Amino acid sequence: MPIVTVKMAKGRPVEKKRSLVKAITNTVAKELDLKPEWVTVLIEEYDQKNWATGGKLHSDKFGSGFGKKGVLKSPGARK
User: Fold this and answer.
1) Which domain holds residue 21?
2) How far apart are alpha carbons 42 and 7 in whole angstroms?
3) pTM, whole model, 2 decimals?
4) Residue 22 within a domain
């Protein structure tokens, strides 16, 4: 029973998460030749103020959205 953990910034819509876990589940099941029901996917989400890369907080580096700076905004984020 494989367990896959995805770590990412908070803010993505639930529809994107549904699509992601479906794709991961199908790929793992196919590659390991097992039933999709046996695959577990865990999503761990982090506030950008609690995540840093290269010595800089992601909240400072990317602003209020997620992903590439200025490209993807979290729902309800200020412009």
Assistant:
1) 3-62
2) 8
3) 0.74
4) yes
